[in-house]
Amino acid sequence: MKKTVRTPKNAPPIGPYSQGVVANGFVFAAGQAGVDPKTGQLVLGGIAAQTRQTLENIRNILEAAGCGLEDVVSSTVYLVNMADFAAMNEVYGEFFPQDPPARTTVGVASLPMGAAVEITCIAVLKG
User: Fold this and answer.
1) Which single residue of 7, 15, 19, 30 could bond 64 by disulfide (Cβ 3.0 to 4.6 Å)?
2) CB atoms within 10 A of CB 95
3) What does the alpha-carbon distance between residue 96 and residue 94 come to, in Å, rounded to a whole number?
4) What is the distance between the alpha carbons of residues 63 and 73, in angstroms, rounded to a whole number?
5) CA angle, 79 as apex, 106 and 53 as ends, to 5°?
6) Cα torsion angle, 48, 49, 50, 53, sign
7) What is the separation, in whole angstroms, between the first and last Cα of the chain?
8) Distance between CA 17 and CA 31 in Å, rounded?
9) Contacting residues for 22 by C-beta, under 8 A, at least 6 apart
10) DSSP for the chain?
11) In angstroms, what CA-CA distances link 27 with 24, 65, 99, 108?
């Protein structure tokens, strides 16, 4: 069985995809960027601010699905500028202070909306 996840706490998707999908005991969160749900625009303040908002958006999807950041088992980070790795990593560590998930970080040429970072993840549902 497959169930889509939507949360009004996030801006709606900018394309034909779900914010998240629950299947076989896992939550697959679609790639999120640092979009402010109130304005639908990227937050100001550079890579740290965008990373923080991105992870808040992921947290909202996971909570709507019935789990949290502590249940994330894998994530993928897409960075437009690999020189931003350290600043992104510092904020990322605030959200995963213990037993962080497996992670891959990839440098990309560009992201939708001109975002500096996009993050996707897979989490395990509780129970």
Assistant:
1) 7
2) 19
3) 6
4) 15
5) 125
6) positive
7) 16
8) 10
9) 2, 3, 4, 5, 28, 65, 125
10) -EEEE--TTSPPPSSS--SEEEETTEEEEEEE-SB-TTTSSBPSSHHHHHHHHHHHHHHHHHHHHT--GGGEEEEEEEES-GGGHHHHHHHHHHH--SSPPEEEEEE-S--GGG-SEEEEEEEEPP-
11) 9, 7, 18, 25
Query: Which residue in this structure is represented by tokens 């500096």?
Result: 116
pLDDT in tens, the chain (127 residues): 899 999 999 999 989 999 999 999 999 999 999 999 999 999 999 999 999 999 999 999 999 999 999 999 999 999 999 999 999 999 999 999 999 999 999 999 999 999 999 999 999 998 6
- Assess contact for 69 and 62: CB atoms under 8 A: yes
Question: pTM, whole model, 2 decimals?
Answer: 0.97
